[in-house]
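Protocol step 4 of 6: structure prediction from sequence.
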Amino acid sequence: MSYLGPILSLAFVIVTARLLLHKYNPHAVLLVSGLTMLIVSQVLNFNMPDLKNPTGFPGFNLFRYIKESFSKTNAGVGLMIMSIGGFVAYIDKIGASDTLVYVAMKPLKLFKKHPYIAASMVIPIGQVLFTAIPSAAGLSLLLMASLFPILVNLGVSRLSAVSVITATTAFGMGPASAITASATEISGIGTIPFFLNYQIPLVWPLSIIMMVVYYIVNRYYDKKEQLEAIESNENDIKPKTPLIYALIPVLPIILLIVFSEIFSLFSTPISLDTTTAMFISLFIAMLFEFIRTKSIKQVLNSLSTFWNGMGNIFKSVVTLIITADIFAKGLISLGFISGLLDLAQNMGLGAIGIGVVMTLMIFLASMLMGSGNASFFAFGPLVPKISKSLGVDTVDIILPMQLSASMGRTVSPVAGVIIATAEIAKVSTIAIVRRNLIPLSIALIVMLISHFI
């Protein structure tokens, strides 16, 4: 019976993948698959995911999972993604995106002949930003608002641009990262020493490798698929808004960096989350519009663009994240993770073998569930016991595991970061995953070799 659940979960994964590849509605497929797995778990009397407020009747509890997933998502990452989606729609409406492109294209004309070099350079720059803005979906959408139109105007395809933007979130590292916080607690090492002495030495060569591989992969696929950047002449025609409007799309990033806990620039700590930064930036943009138009009515009416943008993101992105969460709950309830752990422990491998297997399993779990945090929080706490039995330091196993968790998320078609950026870029999630899979797989292999050998 112990292996029945994992076998069933694997069968559900295969069926779900086939339906998604045949272009069935992903919202419906993930929701029905997740609920079916939860029903099977109930019938087989497996451990069900915890509910904050059970209904008292198992049949109704299945739908309470949906309600709680809506509540959790909308109050957290869902609201953040919707606020960014609304902001992106608003700055496009008032012409701030076009102004940013116009201003940025002046110094970046050098890269017109080498657009894929510019695209690859986004990866290390974004990874630095990711240490200060540790939300994968949040940072990626901010870069979609600021860097995406610039990359497209330089000459790369929309798919190439969005692929390097999502790649900036491939390594969950830095003091502000939730995965890092968990890893340091498990390993018993301070956050800053863990970041400086363990994460950075392992990650910086991987970033260089990813830059090179993304350059090759994106050029190859764009040529093979005959994808071209949308022709635009924003860099030749002066935009309709003042040049200071170029500041608006990058304003949220500036706010989040200035008020980041990492830099501690103020004697009295100021905490600023991504959603709050979006609303601050929105009202600053509205102030700019009032100064430019001198019309209160026009400015107030323009706010409808923001609400419409939020609504569009909710119906296409947030609902998909919620159904993916139900799918992940179904996998967990069938013992998918516990089955992987039993498999690893029963293989009789040494410290290196166990480390490699655990790292690969977390990568796979993140890819299937769309969440690096969920997979690492499930596997991570078991590492001290395993490392003690093998006579090795916990950090030797935990370090590649925590990095592979975020790497797996970057190649997951049900990850929030992939879903959200695909919607903004108007490309498919599978197409982004295909662009990301080769660079991330190579980075994963290099990481395993350099760390364990």
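Step 5 (inspection) to follow. Residues 141 and 423 are 10 Å apart (CA to CA).
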